[in-house]
């Protein structure tokens, strides 16, 4: 077992989830309750990481974050380090490829709440914030939990984007999924097997939790 | 407010001043066409009838502050809720409107009592529970205060929605097809409850319905709405015996279901 890789993966997954949660709530809610011009395009762009080959996404992120790009140069001027092949760059990439996993469950959950309930709350005198706290969130929490679990687990397992943007620097960008690949290349199937089993189990548990919560939520709403 | 609470106030009893009650004038060409003018005095029940898609719900939403039309004014007594020319638009929270939604829109994760309490947010916290229970008692549901909407019958849900609307101490009560989702027997009883309620509720009531018998039985005034336009307003008898146009006659023949 490559412990530093596992620790790094857990760190990346936690950070990604933390960063993506507010973004997911804001964008998911926006898409659920508002119609605006170009909404379909925004939705398509958010879904893109789901269908795009990770190497393609990774390639564009590498270009966008690289030393020749404005973002990469600004980062370098600010911190003195390159953004690509660093944990920070990996985190940005991770946030991007997890957008659909965070936003879609939240969007569906807020859509499930429906406009009428929000309207009823407003007409009853509840502020927008109170409506969010008392009506939207208590009804959309299964979506929130799904977003959390899916983002976390998916980050643990992402390979292509991580390799393209992060390389495989031990302790910095070599996540557990990369480590498995390295172990197989080195004919260390025992270590690869243990790590693969760990990822398999965590992914299975995550999906079970998401389904379990979904079923519970359906029962609650009757 | 100046109405006769002792019995159903008939139109003639209330002097037609420009002051009290709800006054609505809305106009826009699109996206949803609207050409509405109506007044509803305190204690008066004004029915809005028309086929589905006539803009009945849009009209109620505009009054509640949930939909902002391009042109027009909405006033309730002395307070201006909407005045397009002056750029006035009060948020739904700033209007005192009781709205019973067509599908009730009860909060499914809250008990009946908690549902009613959401409309008491301006009251002191300590008084909310007692006030909510009193309102539920008023609609005959004090013993089911702790049930969630899913554990209540359709008629009971409607009464919780009504209690929640009244909890707001509204200046105007809006009812969007409140009897559409219940069986005929429950509907009779709920309609009877509304008649009783009106005696103690001296505020304008707008009732959206597509049921002409209901309008005839409950309403003092009736407006026929078609494609966002009020085609005719009068007492239900007037409108039904003397429709202003062939279209009104057509619509009234088509509407009963």
Q: Describe it for me?
A:
- The complex is a heterodimer of chains A (222) and B (257).
- The longest helix of chain A has 33 residues, at 189-221.
- Chain A has helices at 3-33, 39-51, 54-65, 70-79, 87-97, 99-113, 115-123, 128-157, 160-166, 176-185, 189-221.
- By secondary structure, chain A is mainly alpha-helical.
- The radius of gyration of chain A is 20 Å and the shape is globular.
- Helix content of chain B is 32%, strand content 23%.
- Chain B has helices at 56-64, 112-117, 125-138, 154-167, 184-199, 212-218, 236-241, 246-254, and strands at residues 22-28, 34-40, 45-49, 71-76, 79-83, 88-89, 97-100, 172-176, 205-209, 221-226, 229-234.
- In chain B, strand 8, helix 5 (184-199) and strand 9 (205-209) form a beta-alpha-beta unit.
- The model of chain B is unreliable at 1-17 (pLDDT under 50).
- The chains are: A mainly alpha (222), B alpha/beta (257).
- The interface between A and B is medium-sized, with 20 and 28 residues.
What are its keywords?
heterodimer, A: 222 residues, mainly alpha, 11 helices, 0% strand, B: 257 residues, alpha/beta, 6-stranded mixed sheet, 5-stranded antiparallel sheet, 8 helices
Measured distance between first and last alpha carbons of chain A: 46 Å
User: Mean pLDDT of chain B, rounded to whole units?
Assistant: 86
Q: Which strands sit side by side, in order, in the main sheet of chain B?
A: 7-8-9-3-10-11
Report on the biggest sheet of chain B: 6 strands, mixed
Strand tally of chain A = 0
Helical stretch tally of chain B: 8
Helix content of chain A: over 70%
Quaternary structure type: heterodimer
Helix fraction of chain B by DSSP (H/I, runs of at least 4): 25-40%
Task: Determine the N-to-C terminus distance of chain B.
Answer: 37 Å
**Biggest chain-to-chain interface with counts:** A-B, 20 and 28 residues
| Proportion of residues in β-strands of chain B | 15-25%
Structural class of chain A: mainly alpha
Q: What proportion strand of chain A? A: under 5%
Low-pLDDT segments of chain A: none
Rg over alpha carbons of chain A: 20 Å
The string of secondary-structure elements of chain A, in order, is HHHHHHHHHHH
Q: Give the total of beta strands of chain B.
A: 11
Q: H/E element string of chain B?
A: EEEHEEEEHHHEHEHEEHH
């Amino acid at each position: 077992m490559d412990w530093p890789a596992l620790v790094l993966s857990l760190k990346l997954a936690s950070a990604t989830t933390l960063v993506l949660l507010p973004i997911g709530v804001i964008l998911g809610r926006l898409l659920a309750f508002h119609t605006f011009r170009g909404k379909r395009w925004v939705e398509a762009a958010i879904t893109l990481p789901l269908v795009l080959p990770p190497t393609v996404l990774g390639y564009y992120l590498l270009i966008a974050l690289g030393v020749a790009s404005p973002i990469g140069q600004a980062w370098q001027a600010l911190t003195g380090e390159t953004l690509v092949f660093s944990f920070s760059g990996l985190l940005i990439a991770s946030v991007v490829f997890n957008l659909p996993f965070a936003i879609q469950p939240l969007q569906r959950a807020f859509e499930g709440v429906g406009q009428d309930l929000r309207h009823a709350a407003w007409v009853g005198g509840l502020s927008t914030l109170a409506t969010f706290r008392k009506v939207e969130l208590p009804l959309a929490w299964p979506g929130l939990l799904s977003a959390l679990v899916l983002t976390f687990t998916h980050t643990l397992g992402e390979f292509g984007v991580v390799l393209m943007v992060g390389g495989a620097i031990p302790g910095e960008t070599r996540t557990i999924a990369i480590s498995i690949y390295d172990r197989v290349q080195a004919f260390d199937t025992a270590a690869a097997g243990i790590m693969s089993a760990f990822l398999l189990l965590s992914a299975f548990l995550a999906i079970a939790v998401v389904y379990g919560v979904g079923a519970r939520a359906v029962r609650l709403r009757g | 407010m100046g109405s006769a609470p002792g019995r159903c106030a008939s139109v003639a009893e209330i002097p037609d001043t420009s002051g009290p009650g709800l006054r609505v004038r809305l106009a826009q060409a699109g996206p949803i066409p609207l050409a509405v003018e109506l007044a509803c005095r305190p204690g008066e029940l004004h029915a809005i009838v028309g086929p589905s898609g006539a803009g009945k719900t849009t009209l109620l939403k505009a009054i509640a502050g949930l939909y902002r039309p391009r042109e027009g004014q909405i006033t309730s007594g002395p307070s201006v809720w909407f005045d397009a020319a002056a750029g006035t638009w009060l948020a739904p929270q700033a209007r005192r409107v009781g709205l019973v939604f067509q599908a009730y829109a009860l909060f499914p994760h809250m008990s009946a009592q908690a549902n009613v309490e959401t409309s008491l947010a301006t009251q002191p916290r300590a008084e909310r529970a007692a006030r909510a229970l009193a309102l539920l008692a008023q609609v005959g549901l004090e013993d089911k205060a702790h049930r969630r909407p899913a554990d209540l019958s359709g008629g009971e849900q409607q009464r919780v929605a009504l209690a929640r609307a009244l909890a707001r101490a509204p200046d105007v009560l809006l009812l969007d097809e409140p009897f559409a989702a219940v069986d005929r027997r429950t509907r009779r009883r709920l309609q009877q409850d509304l008649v009783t309620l009106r005696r103690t509720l001296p505020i304008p009531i707008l009732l959206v319905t597509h049921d002409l018998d209901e309008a005839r039985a409950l309403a003092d005034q009736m407006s026929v709405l078609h494609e966002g336009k009020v085609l005719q307003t009068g007492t239900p008898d007037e409108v039904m015996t003397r429709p202003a146009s062939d279209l009104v006659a057509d619509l009234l023949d088509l509407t009963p279901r």
